[in-house]
Write a sequence for this structure.
């Protein structure tokens, strides 16, 4: 009989911003391939992606964009500087926060609030009205903010945490759904080293990072024209500074469509001719699964007809 302790665990490992209970874990729970696998909680985006590049994990779930705070800069910068990473899929999680305390603490007793900076930024209005004059103590995650309540120093009075955290910790809830925007959502990306592209679905997104080749009047317009003249919609564009060239930027782009769409492929060719610094992060199904609406003149059929017409001229 084989000793169970000597049998190698053949499950795959997925990394995510922990500990258990974070919104990142909620995003990972949407990944069918991650079911029944090993989930490894880590402290930050860098550690999660280091797990992927080292082979410790097959993929990592990281936050990409928040509907209120915008792009997650740590993730964008990591994707721009760590070679070989690809986005295999995107996932959305509705954001809802509670103010929690140790049992017996009253709202009027709260002087210090532990919170992740993004969570804190989304709850400012409620805190200003209900906890005026409080001090914000920065936490590494939405769950570590709760752990701070039980630090032996006892200098944290309250914490901003995901809704339902009272099911995991011995805390009392003083405020529910305290985020300023009740429709807030965060978009997450599952990142791996795999070169296998998800099949085109018609409801797809393509992510890129692009640097302008040089600074000249209209250079940004030239970059954008590569998409506009081919009927490719940009669903997101944000800039990040280049640390070694002050005043210069790279651009993080999301396009509506898949690299197997003729209009997207042609735009990428034009973009690469314009700039030698293009990072392709992947084509993958949109989280909302909404089909991309394309004007017929930009459809694959019309691109094919144009190619046939050009061939006929040469013939």
């Amino acid at each position: 009989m084989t000793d169970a302790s000597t049998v190698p665990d053949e499950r795959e490992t997925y990394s995510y911003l922990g500990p258990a209970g974070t919104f990142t874990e909620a995003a990972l729970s949407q990944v069918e391939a991650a079911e029944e696998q090993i989930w490894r909680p880590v402290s930050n985006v860098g550690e999660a992606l280091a797990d992927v590049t080292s082979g410790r994990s097959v993929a990592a779930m990281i936050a990409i964009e928040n509907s209120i705070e915008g792009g997650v800069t740590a993730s964008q910068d990591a994707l721009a500087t760590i070679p070989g990473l690809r986005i295999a899929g995107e996932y959305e999680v509705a954001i809802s926060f509670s103010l929690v305390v140790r049992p017996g603490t009253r709202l009027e007793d709260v002087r210090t609030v532990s919170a992740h900076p993004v969570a804190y930024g989304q709850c400012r209005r409620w805190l200003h009205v209900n906890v005026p004059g409080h001090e914000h103590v920065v936490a590494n995650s939405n769950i570590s903010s709760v752990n701070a309540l039980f630090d032996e120093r006892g200098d944290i009075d309250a914490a901003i945490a995901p809704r339902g955290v009272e099911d995991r910790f011995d805390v009392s809830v003083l405020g529910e759904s305290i985020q300023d925007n009740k429709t807030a959502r965060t978009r997450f990306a599952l990142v791996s080293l795999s070169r296998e592209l998800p099949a085109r679905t018609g409801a797809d997104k393509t992510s890129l990072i692009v640097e302008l080749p040089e600074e000249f009047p209209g250079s940004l317009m030239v970059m954008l024209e590569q998409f506009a003249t081919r009927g490719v919609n940009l669903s997101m564009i944000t800039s990040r500074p280049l640390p070694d060239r002050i005043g210069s930027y790279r651009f993080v782009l999301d396009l509506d469509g898949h690299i197997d769409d003729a209009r997207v492929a042609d735009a990428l060719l034009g973009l690469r001719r314009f700039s030698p610094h293009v990072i392709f992060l992947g084509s993958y199904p949109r989280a909302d699964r909404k089909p991309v609406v394309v004007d017929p003149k930009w459809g694959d059929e019309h691109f094919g007809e144009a190619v046939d017409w050009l061939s006929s001229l040469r013939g």
